[in-house]
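Chapter review: from sequence to fold.
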Amino acid sequence: MEHKCKICEKSIKGRSDKIFCSSQCKNLYHKKLRYASKIAAIEINGYLKRNYAILLEELGKNKKQIKIYRNLLEKKGFRFKYHTHFHINSKNKMFHYIYDLAWMEFSDDEILIVRKI
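The token string follows.
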């Protein structure tokens, strides 16, 4: 059975598990892969930074927690699916974190924002 290069589709000679015909094709493949990963990371980091800025703006410098309406966050461009990690507390409530700030869905239309120290 003849194998074709993953990049240029030339016939591959040698071992049966080879996927590139040359080191140039192999290097090009990995360069494209790194670039795609970098672009994705830049986009996601942008969403995280924006979400963090919105939470920080709402919470202010001195408050440890505040309750606000969900649609207020949505109007400011907050993206609920982007966060760094989450924590489920003893009352089985899930906090979504962006670094040291977190939010929890308090009700269908209210969000609790907290600062963790």
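Two observations follow directly from the output. The CA atoms of residues 42 and 81 lie 16 Å apart. The chain has one domain: 23-115.
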